[in-house]
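Quick one, tokens below. Sequence please?
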């Protein structure tokens, strides 16, 4: 089945207001910037996003945030984005902070059909006890707080119950995709992308290169096409990979 879509706009056209999204990437590495730009252009609002972070003020998910399109973030790291902090403290944005390994496992569990799991991460902290501010009110008080977690003991050690994450749509960045949706990720871009892809009910992938079915070595495939619904070619923009910096040093001079 050929899953290639002509344009990013077409690939995200049916994402409605209020949709939940699982978005791959880590910082500015491996983010689906082409699909995010298409969402910004679409005008969709009220999005509920699960992603490691929310980009920066002028890039990645930060572009949707700047336009007021995100209603809720489930994240691990929220630094380096002043607008994120402003919206959160002003009560404009709901934020669920999750330990990074727990977030990864919640996405993985969602993709595997596991409804919940126990983990020792967060035991003895406010993650367990509840009360973390999810949303502030106009007066600066806490309007919505995290609930306490269920605790069980295994092997003499307490564990917290964490629910899996599934999303209406997943947005993912890959280095190479074939027309059947089989994916290869490059280096550190193989971070949250496979997990987000599996957790989405409809998974949309932007790939830097698209090849014909059968061109990829089966042993080299990182994520099989069963998890992928649509593939679009990523924009060929050198500024797209802001995490990369070319550094040089003066050429060595021959010894005299």
């Amino acid at each position: 089945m050929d899953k290639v879509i002509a344009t990013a706009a077409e690939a995200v056209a049916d994402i409605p207001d209020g949709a939940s999204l699982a978005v791959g990437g880590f910082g500015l590495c491996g983010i689906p910037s082409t699909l995010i730009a298409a969402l910004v252009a679409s005008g969709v609002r009220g999005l509920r996003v699960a992603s490691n972070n929310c980009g920066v003020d002028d890039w990645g998910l930060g572009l949707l945030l700047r336009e007021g399109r995100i209603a809720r973030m489930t994240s691990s790291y929220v630094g380096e984005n002043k607008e994120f902090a402003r919206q959160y403290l002003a009560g404009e944005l709901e934020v669920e902070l999750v330990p990074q390994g727990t977030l990864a496992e919640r996405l993985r569990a969602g993709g595997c059909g596991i409804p919940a799991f126990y983990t020792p991460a967060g035991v003895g902290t406010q993650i367990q006890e509840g009360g973390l501010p999810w949303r502030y009110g106009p007066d600066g008080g806490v309007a919505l707080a995290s609930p306490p977690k269920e605790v069980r003991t295994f092997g003499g050690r307490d564990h917290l119950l964490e629910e899996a994450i599934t999303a209406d749509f997943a947005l993912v960045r890959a280095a190479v995709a074939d027309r059947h949706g089989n994916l290869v990720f490059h280096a550190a871009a193989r971070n949250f992308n496979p997990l987000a892809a599996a957790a989405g009910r409809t998974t949309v992938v932007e790939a830097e290169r698209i090849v014909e079915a059968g061109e990829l070595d089966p042993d080299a495939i990182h994520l099989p096409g069963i998890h992928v619904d649509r593939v679009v070619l990523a924009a060929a923009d050198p500024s797209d990979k802001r995490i990369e910096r070319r550094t040089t040093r003066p050429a060595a001079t021959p010894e005299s």
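The chain has seven helices and 13 strands. Helices lie at 8-11, 33-42, 61-66, 82-89, 100-112, 126-129, 193-199.
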